[in-house]
Amino acid sequence: MGMTALVNRLAAHRPACYLVEVPGGQETRWALESALDRLGWWQVTAPGHADVLLMAGALPEALMPATEVLWSQLPGPRVRLGLEAPADVADALAEVRSLLSQADAHWHDGSQRSDEVQRWLGDDEDGHEEHTSHEGHEEHEGHEGHDHGDHDEGGHDHDMGMSPSGIPLAGGAEDRDGLEMDQLVHPWGPLLHHWPGGLELRITLRGDVVAEASSRWWADARPPDVSPGEAWDAVATTLALMGDERSARRARAVRDGHGDHADAEVLRRHITRLRRWQTLPTEAAATLLDLVEDPEASLARDVDAARLIRGQDLSDARLLLAATAPLLRAAPATARAHHDGGGSHG
Amino acid sequence: MGEFWGALLPAMTVCVATVALAWLVSATLSTAEGRPLRAAAASPVFEAARLLRQRRRRTIEADLLLWRLAGWSMLPVAVLLVGLVPWGEQALLPSSLGVVWANTLDVVVWALVWLLGWGANSVAGLVGGYRFLALALGYELPLMFALVAPALAASSLDLAVIAQAQDPVWYVVWMPVAFVAYLVGVLGFAVHGPLAAPAGREVSGGVLAELSGPDLLVVRLGRHALMAAGAAVAVPLFLGGGDGPWWPAPVWVTVKVVLLTAALAWLAGRLPALRVPQLMGPLWVVLLPLVVLQDLVVAVVVQGVG
Fold it and tell me: For A83, which of A88, A187, A273, B62 could close a Cys bridge (C-beta 3.0–4.6 Å)?
């Protein structure tokens, strides 16, 4: 008993948080990130690693099913906190440890569900059915293109012939070089870490290259506006995704007004260096530098998320989206439920 | 029976040493990323408790056997690597083919990381797994040629013999290129630092994305341990093994292993992860010819002296 109590206490000491921004939750996310920095808690990049699900912003009804799928992906003991405004942050985080320590409640929660993550629910032609919500990079990739048919010999239910666990196998398509590649339709967003709140992308992957993409926004269009804070937020997000945590923290400080001019200068030089080393995709680095140097001028660009990532590999696409996030939101074409059908590719 | 008990203590020592070195890697990495020293040193304890308490999680149609096997094999591979290192006169696993065994173990890691990505049956995992294969092609050849240099100079594949042959000049002094290529390879098979792309955050952790609880704990431990084990093997290969004034050999080996591990982890924590398409060029077009040239220099010197 003493041992269990000790592990429980140690385990709750430094919770791992999975932080998701919902539409309109940007400022709450900033407050959360800076609070996590102060506490020294970790932001993890996969729900499977997390204890705490933090939803920044007021969750719209339409995103509830997606939230449930995401919630099911936290292994448990798990705690979920929805924070509607920056003012809620301090109180909410203060109770995380005690919530995580309630062993009995977590034991009960765990006994109520399977250790297999929740299934992705179907998919309609258009790819935008209300309940096909899903979190992004997760478990429903049975239709991956690498002979997963091998696994379906067992007694799984076959919905449509070759559909292990009801997940259809990959279809083929001609790739850029004329060879046939298996392709996989993969959802990205709307609830994903380091991701613009409310953006949902549906991408067609060949290997790890985004062959086609279509986008949808779960948020209302906002007037175009890039504040210096948003520019530095894009820098912080991009650097955090690259695993450059030290510089990301510095960028968050500048964003929140804690950093000084020297910090901004250091970061600018850092991005220039990353561009020279090709560590950051050239286009992403250029966008970031434009944003921090002249936010107004960068607004002139009309950026569409789907067009931006077509033809990029998965990680470049992710970094490009992070770097361009303020412009994506500001772009006038990003009205609610905007569809940008696949389109052709080179 | 007596032999068994005689071997148990050294075996336990090597296991404990490997885990302690993994802790050193973790703490150094966190410090390099800008966390306060105390928090960085304590965090492995909190993380271990947290992940021990966390539930395991399965993905749909996961290849459970291979997935779990891969994750739980990383630490044992690291322990075997540390076991090859001659601490004093003798290693736990003395072998006249020590260099070959070290190479074999690092190739085993190919399978482990790839299967870790494959087994989860997820996009992030597979992308990470394939990236690792591409990276492994890039770092493995320079690594193999780097291992040739000390073996050639000492005319032996035995790590103990190689260590003793470095009197009075350590191999790192006249084989710097091989030393660097070897350490790049270590970062590669530990999936750390500039070669961490297979576990990149921008693909949600890649090969690590779907792991949770104890499975995640052993993989993290294994990765850190592999980096430390790689650094440990570099000590007899390039840093003169137990050679040094005043102290006995085992102390020197320990000091060198700890310092090299910390230095490597610090570097890994400071450098950003490089993109895979950008890595092939430097690794094959620049590093590989340089290492081959290094081998040539070593061969000529050995011929000239002999």
Answer: A88
What residues of chain A lie within 8 A of the CB of B46, using their CB?
10-11, 13-14
Interface contact B122-A73, CB threshold 8 A: no
Cα torsion through B145, B148, B149, B152, rounded to 10: -150
Judge whether residue A158 has pLDDT over 70.
no
Q: Tell me whether residues A11 and B50 touch, CB distance under 8 A.
A: yes
Å from A290 to nearest chain B CA? 22
d(C-alpha A327, C-alpha B19), whole Å: 47
Q: Report the SS3 class of residue A217.
A: strand
CB B46 within 8 A of CB A11: yes
Q: Are A22 and A63 in contact (CB under 8 A)?
A: yes
pTM of the model: 0.88
**Distance of alpha carbon B249 from alpha carbon B178, whole angstroms:** 24
* Rounded Cα–Cα distance for residues A48 and B140 (Å): 31
Phi and psi at B115, nearest 5°, equal -65, -30
Helices (H) and strands (E) in chain B, counts: 12, 0
Q: How far apart (Å, rounded) are the C-alpha atoms in residues A36 and A298?
A: 30
**pLDDT reading at A316 higher than 80:** yes
Tell me how many degrees the CA angle B236-B135-B122 measures, rounded to the nearest 5. Answer: 120
Q: Is B246 buried (19+), middle (13-18) or exposed (0-12) by CB count in 10 A?
A: exposed
At which residue do the structure tokens 């001019």 appear? A261
* pLDDT beyond 70 at B1: no
CA B61/CA A136 separation, integer angstroms: 18
pLDDT of res. A162: 60
Return the number of other C-beta atoms located less than 10 Å from residue A275's C-beta: 18
Per-residue b or e along B277-296, where b marks 16 or more CB atoms closer than 10 Å to that residue's CB: eebeeebeeebbebbeebbe
Q: In chain B, whose CA is at the least distance from the CA of A322?
A: B202
Helix (H, G, I), strand (E, B) or coil at B239: coil
**pLDDT tens by residue, B202-250:** 888 999 999 999 999 999 999 999 999 999 999 999 998 888 888 898 9
Where do we find the tokens 């939101």? A329
The CA distance from A271 to A137, in Å, is 27
Each residue's pLDDT tens digit, B245-254 = 888 989 999 9
